[in-house]
Design goal:
By secondary structure, the protein is mostly helical. The protein is built from seven helices and no strands. The longest helix has 66 residues, at 77-142.
Length: 212
C-alpha cells in the first residue's frame, strides 16, 4: 500500500496547502488554549463553595467532638450534647451544599471550555478538512498510475470526462478523436491537465504550459 501523499508536486499548490495546514493547526491550538483558559477562569467560581465546604466540615467535626465530650457528663450528658449534635448535622448539610456548588461549577467549567474550543474548530474543520482528505485520497491513488507513458491514457481519459469544455478546447478541438487515434502529443497535454488537478507531476510528461 503506497504511503499517503499529503502535498502536491507543483510548487504553488504545495505552498498553498502547507500554509493552509499551518494556519489550521494554529487555529486549533489557539482555540484549545482559549477553551482551557475559559475552563480555568470558570472553575474559580468553585472557590467560595469549596471554602464553605471546608469550613462547615471543620466546624461539624469540632461540634461532634464537643458533643462526644459532653455526652460523658453524668446525668445531664445526653441533654447537653444534643444541641451540639444538631449543630454538627446542620454544618454537615452546609458542607454538602458547598460541595454541590463545587460540582456544579466544575461541570459548568468543563462544558463551557469544551464548547468554546470545539465550536470554532468544528466550523473551520468541516470546511477545510474534507478538501484535504479528498486531495490525499485522490493524489495517493493517482500516483500509482504515473510510472509509465501508457498510464497517461487513463489521465487523458479522465480529463476528457472531468475537465470543463473550455479547458479542453485550449488543447484540441477533438479530444475524443485524439484519444481514439492515439495522438500522443495531445494525450500528454490532456493528461497534464488531469495530473495538475490531482496535484501530481509525471516524469513522462513535459510541461506544456496548459492551465486548468
Amino acid at each position: 500500500m503506497p504511503a499517503p501523499k499529503l502535498y502536491a508536486d507543483t510548487h504553488a499548490r504545495f505552498a498553498g496547502q502547507l500554509v493552509g495546514d499551518v494556519l489550521f493547526v494554529c487555529w486549533l491550538v489557539a482555540w484549545v488554549w482559549i477553551g482551557h483558559a475559559v475552563h480555568d477562569q470558570t472553575l474559580e467560581l468553585a472557590g467560595p463553595g469549596q471554602q464553605t465546604a471546608d469550613s462547615a466540615t471543620s466546624l461539624a467535626g469540632s461540634l461532634t467532638d464537643a458533643g462526644d465530650t459532653l455526652s460523658g457528663v453524668p446525668v445531664v450528658g445526653d441533654s447537653v450534647s444534643s444541641p451540639f449534635d444538631q449543630a454538627s448535622a446542620a454544618s454537615q448539610q452546609l458542607a454538602e451544599a458547598g460541595r454541590a456548588e463545587v460540582r456544579a461549577a466544575e461541570r459548568l467549567a468543563f462544558w463551557l471550555g469544551i464548547s468554546i474550543a470545539a465550536i470554532p474548530i468544528l466550523v473551520v474543520g468541516t470546511r477545510y478538512l474534507p478538501g484535504r482528505v479528498r486531495f490525499v485520497r485522490e493524489a495517493t491513488a493517482g500516483q500509482r498510475f504515473i510510472d509509465a507513458e501508457a498510464d497517461l491514457d487513463l489521465f487523458a481519459l479522465r480529463a476528457v470526462t472531468h475537465q470543463p469544455m473550455h479547458v479542453l478546447a485550449r488543447v484540441t478541438d477533438d479530444p475524443v478523436g485524439a484519444l481514439r487515434n492515439g495522438d500522443r502529443a495531445v494525450i500528454a497535454r490532456l493528461a497534464e491537465l488531469q495530473l495538475r488537478r490531482h496535484g501530481l507531476r509525471s516524469t513522462t510528461v513535459e510541461p506544456t504550459g496548459v492551465r486548468a
